[in-house]
Amino acid sequence: MPGRGRARSGDERGAASVLAVGIVGAVVALTALVVPVTATFVASQRAANAADAAALAAADAASGAVSGVPCTLAAEAAARNGASLTSCAVEGVVATVGVTIGSLGTTLSAVARAGPPPTRAAPPRVP
User: For residues 101 and 46, is the Cβ–Cβ distance under 8 A?
Assistant: First the structure.
């Protein structure tokens, strides 16, 4: 049996293992980059949702639809959504609030307004 046990020129045994390790490494690296970006996007959406809920709660209180102090209700709504109320302004029945939320060591903020739409002056009539 000539040639048994001798390495042949161009022997590619084990090449698939090296390729598999490279692919696994690339997938791990890609995952390490995508997960934080996705988590930050989700947190920004959570902040926006918390701001919307807080603004609606404050506007409902300001309009008399629910009883309570507008900014207190806004702070409670923000807290229920995992955020902290940073600003609250009520003018008539319009409420504007700001919230922050933490994610992966960063702080994300969002602002929302709730109330009737702003009034616009009618455009001038052309004779």
Answer: yes
What is the pLDDT confidence band of residue 6, given thresholds at 50, 70 and 90? low
Confidence (pTM): 0.71
54 close to 69: Cβ distance less than 8 angstroms:
no
pLDDT tens track for 59-69? 999 998 899 99
* 89: Cβ contacts below 8 Å, ≥ 6 apart: 95, 96, 97
Q: State the DSSP string of 43-100.
A: HHHHHHHHHHHHHHHHHHHHHTSS-S-HHHHHHHHHHHTT-EEEEEEEETTEEEEEEE
